[in-house]
Amino acid sequence: MPEKPAGGVRARVRAELTAEIKAAARRQLATEGASSLSLRAIARELGMASSAIYRYFASRDELLTALIIDAYEDVASHIEAAESQCERADHRGRFVAIATTLRSWAVANPNEYALIYGTPVPGYAAPTDTIDPATRVPITLLTVLVESHVSETSEPDESDLGQALADVLVFTNHSVPADAMALAIEAWAEIFGLINLEMFGHFKNAVTNPSVMFNHAANSMAERILP
Amino acid sequence: MPEKPAGGVRARVRAELTAEIKAAARRQLATEGASSLSLRAIARELGMASSAIYRYFASRDELLTALIIDAYEDVASHIEAAESQCERADHRGRFVAIATTLRSWAVANPNEYALIYGTPVPGYAAPTDTIDPATRVPITLLTVLVESHVSETSEPDESDLGQALADVLVFTNHSVPADAMALAIEAWAEIFGLINLEMFGHFKNAVTNPSVMFNHAANSMAERILP
DNA sequence: GCAGAAACGAGAGCGGTGCTCTCGAAACGG
DNA sequence: CCGTTTCGAGAGCACCGCTCTCGTTTCTGC
Question: What is this structure's pTM?
Fold first, then answer.
């Protein structure tokens, strides 16, 4: 998909139409859900032949991929913006900001949330284009964790736990002990667990106010994992 | 769907065929995923006309519902069996048994797990038939929690947290304090978060051995929430 | 400035889906 | 035994993703 920055007329209308298709897809996503996203319906809405869509996206999966990347970028931008407004030394505040912003974004964009953090579409294998934007959010969390452990430096951990978390421990240059990293991953999982349970309807007859529950949990987690 | 217990020939072959359809559906579910489950493919596999399926299930959604109920019952049976083999007083052991059995079941039956704990099918609203079997698993966990707080009895909690958790606190007759209940819900969310992250591919380049990580977390949670 | 190349939109068509309707055969029950 | 109900099969409808062709429009190199 070569897009010249300000090339001829053709390149411009191509960029515009690509954006219009994505916009229509997002609109349809919001009302129908990901798995029933229909290229033909998008084409109908845009007043063009269904086959014309294929000039812009080679397949339905490629459109989905584009939407997934956009969603990752969008949530990452929100979270980074919220986190950057906290006092640098206030690690717990930064963690809570990350967690609560993630939930707010999920509540505001349930279908995009489901798209990136829900059940993967069956035959769909995430292309490599998606892994980069997907890492932005966890990296902001890891940064807070590393900065709160700034004075420590440890050797590679040879324990079972240390080996199980080898990849992420290497990623942080072993500046975070394995058990502290495990606590952080637990918190990370808890955040998604709470959001998933709320969004996918498993809090019925149990938690009446998910927002209060989530804020309580976020503060509880911050105390638990950050010194 | 009236099914006479041992009625005429017709009732028996109807029950058998219903089971065969579900079996074929489950087989297809394991290889294709829920959203691409095809009634026509099932009919083909069973050597019957696609329209004949509708004598047994009024729609694709109804078949899905039947599979969902079966999955809930199956996971609940596994968890109850594992939990019942623990010493009654060993609350932490019972909790760990519940958690690890849930994960084992999810790893062994990824598509049924996704069916009941993943993103809901877009237009699909869980019929009332599913809520009953869905509660069996959380109830086993709540039972452990309540039994570990057996000596305490408290009044309705009027705090924000107490009100946010009102439904489940009432369900347990206020025998568990609100903050302890919140910790338990946090653990509950963490369990699903860990399983989701693992199953849906978000542990790539981070956690190399999800099993070790999960067992570590399960024990950590047990210490955290149970006295 | 113009001819060849590339990009584009529309339309027809293929095989697939869920679902409905009709029709003849089979099993049931009085 | 005969009327009623249940069942399987087939045709058909509207939709889907996707491919191919064909005439038109835009770009590009000479």
Answer: 0.93
B61 contact to strand C (CB, 7 A limit) = yes
Q: Measure in Å the smallest separation between the Cα of A32 and chain B Cα atoms.
A: 6
A110-117 and A91-108 are packed helices; what angle lies between their axes, rounded to 10 degrees? 110
pLDDT at residue B125 in the model: 64
What pLDDT is attached to residue A129? 84
Q: Which residue intervals of chain A are DSSP H helices?
A: 9-32, 39-46, 60-84, 91-108, 110-117, 128-148, 160-164, 166-171, 178-199, 210-225
Question: What mean pLDDT is predicted for residues B85-104?
Answer: 98
**Which value does ipTM take for this structure?**
0.92
Q: What Å value separates CA B7 and C1' C23?
A: 28
Q: For residue A190, what are its two tokens?
A: 């808890």
Report chain D positions within 7 A of protein CB atoms: 6-12, 15-21, 26-28
Say if residue A153's pLDDT is above 90.
no
Instruction: State the count of interchain CB pairs (< 8 A) between A and B.
Output: 173
Percent pLDDT > 70 in chain B is: 94
Phi first, then psi: give them for residue A159, nearest 5 degrees: -70, 170
Which structure tokens are listed for B141? Answer: 């966990």
Q: Which two tokens stand for residue B187?
A: 């653990």
Residue whose pair of structure tokens reads 């002990």 in the numeric block: A177
Inter-CA distances, B192 with B113, B125, B142, Å: 10, 21, 16
**A105: amino acid identity, one letter:** W
Q: 3-state DSSP call for residue B4?
A: coil
pLDDT, residue B3, reads 32
Helix axes A60-84, A110-117, angle to 10 degrees: 110
Q: Confidence band (pLDDT; 50, 70, 90) for B34?
A: confident
A101-123 per-position pLDDT tens digit:
999 999 999 999 999 999 876 55
DSSP H or E stretch at residue B90: none
Angstrom distance (rounded) from CA B227 to CA B222: 9
Q: Which residues lie below 8 Å from residue B70, measured CB to CB, with a gap of 6+?
A: B22, B26
Shortest distance, CA A18 to any CA of chain B (angstroms): 25
